Amino acid sequence: MSADCVQPPSRWLTAEQAIARLGVSRQTLYAYVSRRLIGVVAAPEDTRRSLYDAADVRQLAERSRQGRSRRAVAASTLSWGEPILASGITRIEAGRIEYRGQDAIALSATATLEQVAALLWQAEAVPAAHSTRVAWPRARGAPGPSPGARNIAETCLAEVAQVAMLGQWANRVQAVVADAVRILDRVAWAASGHSGAPLPTCAPLHERLASAWGVGPEAADLIRRALVLLADHELNASTYAARVVASTRAPLGACVLAGIAALIGPLHGGVTDEVRALVADPAVVADPASAIATRLARGERIPGFGQRLYPDGDPRAKTLLAHMPPAQPWAGVMTATQAMTGVAPNVDFAMLVLEQHLGLPSGAAFGLFAVGRTVGWIAHALEQWRDGTLIRPRAVYRP
Predict the structure, then answer these.
(1) How far is CA 316 from CA 232, 249, 284, 368, 369, in A?
(2) Are 87 and 380 in contact (CB under 8 A)?
(3) Does domain 85-399 have CATH number 1.10.580.10?
(4) Fold (CATH) for 3-67
(5) Which percentage of the chain shows pLDDT scores above 70?
(6) What's the pTM?
């Protein structure tokens, strides 16, 4: 063949070709696209399919072959990289999540959040009689909660700020359990969005929240399951923020405040707003499959799908969705996204389905996330106290 007949390499690759050259999973390919590491366009012959920039794929593959320097490995620890500290709280491995060696999915079948708190905090007990005597009065000078996801998030932040000095450093866990319970109770009150009479007492938190929202026992049990499944998730952004603050021996309330502040970001707990907006899009309501295909062709990330720690699907989402089959348009979005990407819904999507399925106020998904995760933040703060070291990484100076 003459040189004139040699065809230049194609600029665009199919998903299968890109995956083969990179040696990664389809989910990792989508993650590269969402992080803008690989360019993407719609296939001209079928706009429901995407094509990937061959030059970007080649550059990533070369970087992988060359390996990484010690400095590069250290830098990668800050973004889904190498483990950076030892913890005995939560283990995520081979698609499973365990709290102190106990399967979290199994725990969610019967345990209350208070029981999981006792397990994670390594406390003798988190007595229901103690934790539920607290009425949920409005703190002096605090604005009353109002409907809406943004307001629930803001209310959580404002309420925790008022108890930031609770739970001073102590050598014994049991010495701070009472303050830990008061902090958890305050987050739950704020998350409920309740602004009327005091909420019922002498009941576990999931029952009190169900009562505040006017839903029955079956709904309360779903809320209980969700709270247990959200209690901890290893070293995510909000938990790391809480541990950094705890490493200074700041009070428990300040550690939880740091966790809440990180949680409201749209790349963390605040993604529930994006999922809600996605499903409310008129184009998605009218034709979920076509709308999702269009978004994928534009290289957009579909919020509420995929979790890097669970390549085969988020077990927390699977557990919750098994107890509440999603209605339309949620079902359509789930079916279309999975069919086109092979990526399953994560717990953020499941929490929005729960909010819709139970008829909870807008923003309740974020509120439940905050309540459940407060237990984990406190557990990590206590563990960091016991560790006794100050978390202080170094930076690479780049003028």
Answers:
(1) 11, 32, 25, 14, 13
(2) yes
(3) yes
(4) Multidrug-efflux Transporter Regulator; Chain: A; Domain 2 (1.10.1660)
(5) 85
(6) 0.79
